[in-house]
Specification:
The complex is a heterodimer of chains A (about 120) and B (about 800).
Chain A lengths: L1 H16 L5 H12 L3 H26 L3 H9 L6 H34 L3 H5 L1
Helix pairs in contact in A: 1-2, 1-3, 2-5, 3-5, 4-5
Chain B lengths: L1 H20 L9 H5 L18 E6 L6 E5 L5 E4 L3 H27 L3 H5 L4 H9 L2 H13 L2 H19 L8 H6 L8 H16 L4 H10 L2 H7 L49 E7 L10 E9 L1 E2 L4 E7 L2 E7 L8 E4 L2 E7 L5 E5 L9 E4 L2 E4 L1 E9 L2 E10 L22 E5 L7 H10 L3 H8 L7 E7 L4 E6 L14 E2 L19 E2 L5 E4 L22 H12 L5 H8 L5 H13 L7 H11 L11 H21 L12 H10 L17 H20 L8 H5 L1 E5 L8 E4 L15 E3 L2 E5 L5 E5 L17 H5 L4 E2 L15 E7 L1
Parallel strand pairs in B: 1-28, 3-7, 6-22, 11-19
Antiparallel strand pairs in B: 2-3, 2-28, 4-5, 4-21, 5-24, 5-25, 7-8, 8-9, 9-10, 10-17, 11-16, 12-13, 14-15, 17-18, 18-20, 22-23, 25-26, 26-27
The chains are: A mainly alpha (about 120), B alpha+beta (about 800).
Chain lengths: ~120, ~800
Amino acid sequence: MLLFFLILLLAAVAQLFLPWWIVTPICFLLAAGLGRTGGRSFLAGFAGVGLGWAVAAAWLTVGNDGLLAHRVAQLLPLGGSSWALVLLTAVVGGLVGGTAALAGCWLRQAVQGNAAPIRGNAVR
Amino acid sequence: MIRWLKALLALSLTIALTWALNTRFGSVPPFGKFLSPFRGFWRNGETAADFPAQQTLKLPGLQQPVQVRFDDQRVPHIFAQNDHDLYYAQGYFTARDRLWEMDFITHVAAGRLSEIVGKDRLETDRFFRRMGLVYGAHKSLDAAMVDPTVRTVLTSYSDGINAYINSLTPTTYPFEYKLLDYAPEPWEPLKCALILKYMAFDLTGRSDDLRLSNALGKYSREVVRDLFPDYPQREDPVIPDGTPLDFKPVLVPAAPAGFEADYSPLVPQNQPDPELGSNNFAVSGSKSATGFPILANDPHLQLNLPSIWYQVQLAAPSVNVCGVSIPGVPFVIIGFNEQVAWGVTNTYADVLDWYQLKFKDNTRREYWHDGRWKPVRRVVERIKVRGQPDRLDTVLYTHHGPVVYDRQEKPFLAQTPILHAMRWVAHDAANEFLTFYRLNRASNYQDYTTALATYGAPAQNFIFADGQKDIAIWPNGLLPLKWKEQGKFVLDGTNPAHDWQGWVPSAQNPHVKNPPRGFVSSANQFSANPKDYPYYLNWNYGDYERGHRINERLARMNHVTPDSLRVLQNDNLGLNAQLMLPRLLGLVQPRQLSEAQQQVYQELGRWNYFYDAQATGPTVFELWYNTLAKRIWEDDFGKATGLEMRYPTRDRTNTLILQEPNSRWVDDTRTPAKETLAELARASFQFATDSLTRKFGPLSTKWAWANQKSTDILHLAQLPGFGHMDLNVGGGSGIVNATTERNGPSWRMVVALGPQVQAYGLFPGGESGNPGSPFYDNMIEPWSKGRLHPLVFLRSAAEKNPRVQTAWELRSK
C-alpha cells in the first residue's frame, strides 16, 4: 500500500512540472526500493499511475461536459464514449506505471539475489 | 540468471513501451503524451474558468492599454488607442482562437505539409511549390512593406500572434498540435501574404486552356467556336446590359496570327473546386423600407471547421469596423462601419494562362523567346519530410512564370517533351493589404474606389453601399489587357505578342454606380456583356442562374427590409430545372417506363423546382440531367477520346437539348447504333431512377434532396468526429442558397445602412477553433435553418449592451 500511495502522490506532483514519461523512472525507482514482489509492484505501479490519470481525466472531462472527449472517442474510435476514453487513458498510464514498477522490483531482486538472500525472497 | 533475464526483459519492455507511447507512428499520435491528462489533449477541453468575465492580460510590446469586450457569440470587440495596438490585439485574439488553423493553411500554401504529416503529402507540397505561391507571396510582401502604414499593421499583427505563441507551453498547445505531435513556429508577415495567395489559388487557380487546346486540335475552330462560345446564350451580367462607359478605352494589343498548340498530355491536377462562388447584392434607398441602402453578401467556400471566417470588431481613433476577417490576415475583409458596407464575390476573369515552351535541348537550360535563346532560372526547392531526409525538387522559371507540371526526366527521349510555363496574376506584386486598410476606414464612394485601386488578386466583385445612399459594384483586381480570346487556349511561349502586355487601367475595370434599376448584384457570372465593355476578360464565368434569380427577385422587391434579403439568400428555386425539366419530361414517353419509373416520372411532373431539403424532385432531376449531359458529351470530350478535354458549358448543353435535337453530338460514337436525344433522355431517366431505387428503396421520403446531397462540414484535417455530417439543408449548385455537398455560404451578412447601421450575420462554425469549446460549432444550427444573428456593433468600449458581458484589458508587460 505504501508503494501505491507514494507512486500516486509523487507521480502526480512530478507530472505537473515534468513530461508525462517521468512516471517511468518514478515507478521504477520506488519499486526498486520498496517493491516486495513483482506482482505487488506491478499492481502498485498500475494503480498508482492509472488512478492518477483516471481521476485527472475524469475531472477535466466533467468540467468540459465531455465535449472534447466525445469527439476524441469518435476519432480513436471508441463509439464516442468519453468514459471509455477515461478508462483507456487509465489503462495506458497504468501499463506504463505497472511495467516500470515491475522492472524496478525485479532488477533489485536480481542484484540482491546475486549478492545475498534478502528479506523479500524469504516470503516466497 | 533467470532473475537477471526477467529483470532485463521487464526493463526493456518498460523502456520500449515508454518510448513507443511518446512517439508518433505514421498518423497514429504518441498515445502516452496524447492521453496524459497532465499534458495531453484532456487539457484542451474548455471549462468555465477558461473564460472569466473580467481579466487583465499582460503582453509585451503594447503601447497603450487595450479594451476587449466579448459578446454572447464570443466575438472580440477590440478598442485600441492606435493602429499598432489595434492590429497587435487582432493578431493576439485571432491566434488565441485559431492558431492551428492559420498555421496549417500557411503550411499548405508554402508546400510544407510533409514537414508535419510526413511523406504522404509530398506530391501536394511539390504542387504548391511549383505553383509558386511563396514566390508570389514574397513579391507582394516586398511591395506592401514599402508602405509604412501597412508595414506597421503587418508587423504588429505578427507580434500579437507571437505574443500568444510565446505564452504557450506543450500543455497548452492547441489540440491539433498534440494530435499531430508538433509545435507552433513563430509567425511572420510573409505568412499573411501566403494566406492571401492561398485564397488567390482557391479562387483563380483553375484553367481550361490546355483542355480547350486539345479540343481545338481534335476538332476544328468552327466546332470550338460553336461549343465553347465567348458569351453564353443566357446571361445576366454583373454590370447591367446597356450600362454606358464613363471612360475612354485604351488601345488593346493586336491579336497575332493563329497559333495551334501541340496536344498536351499533362493537364492541371489539384485544381480547386469549380463550384466555389458567392452572392452579393445591394438595394438602393429607393427600394428599401427605410430609404437607406441595404447590402447582403454570402461567399460560398468549402465548409470546414474551424471556419475560414473569424468575426471581429476593430476600433481605434481612425476606425471602427465590424465583420469577418480571415485568420492570419489583419483587417476586416467583409463588413461595415458606421458609414459604409462592402462585400465580395469571386470574378472569373482569366488571370492564369499557359505558354508552350521550346527548349534548346533536353538540359532545359535555355528557351526560345523573341528570336533568341533565354536562360531558364532553376530554383531548387528543399522539402522537409517528417522522419525522412529532405527532398529536393528543381523548378524551372521562365519570364512567363514557373513550369508547374513536369514529367520524369527521360533523357533518352529524342524529342524534348512539351512543357508549359504558367503566367498567373498571383505572381505579380499588389498591395491588397492597403485595400482592406482603406476599406475599413472608408466613409463614402470616393474612399471605396481609392481603396480598390491597389488591389491585385484574387479579383473580386466588390459591392458597396453607404449612408449617403450610393450603391455600386466593381469587378476589381489586376486584369491583364488581352487581345480577344488571348489565353482561351495555350499560348505560344516563343512569341512576345502572346505575352501579357500590361493591365486594364484600374479605373476602367468594369463598374456601375447607382444603376437605374435600383440595385446591384453579382453571383460569379460574366462581369459585363462584351457589347458594352471594351476588354476581353474571359470566355467562361460561373453559370448565370443564381445571378438571374437574384436580379429577378430584386427587380420585383419594394420596401426591402434586411429580412427580405435574408430570405433571398436562402432562396432555393432552381432556374436550370425550371428551364430544362419540362423539356426533359417531354422527351420521355411514360408508357415506355416501368411502373415504378412512371411513379417517379409523375412525381417529377408535380415538382415546383424548389431545392428544399425534403423535396424529392431535385434528387431525381439532378441525377437525370447530369447523366444526360454526360451521355451527350462523354464520347466526344470525355476520357474515352484518350485526350484531356472538358465538356461544353451548361448553357451550351441546354441550347443543344432545347433547340438542336439532331445535333451530331447526340449520337454515341462508340456504339454502332445511332442514338436519338429522346433515347438518351429515357436511358438517363431510367438510370437515375434505378440507381436511386437501389440507394433508397422505392420512391419515398427517403429520396429527400438533403439525403442525396448530404452536406458535410468537415474538420480541416478531416478528423472523424470533429465535423458535422449530413446536414438537413436544401439548396445546391446554381441555386441562390448554394449549399452543395461540401461548399456553401461560408458567411451570410445583411447590413442596413442609415443613421444607426444595423447588421446581421453568421457563419457555419463558431468563433473558437478549439474542438473542446462550445463555441467551436455553435452557429451551425441557426445557419442550417437560414437564420441570422443581429451583429453587436459597439460605438465605444464602455457602451452598455446586454449581450456583451465580458470585458478584458490588455496591458504592456
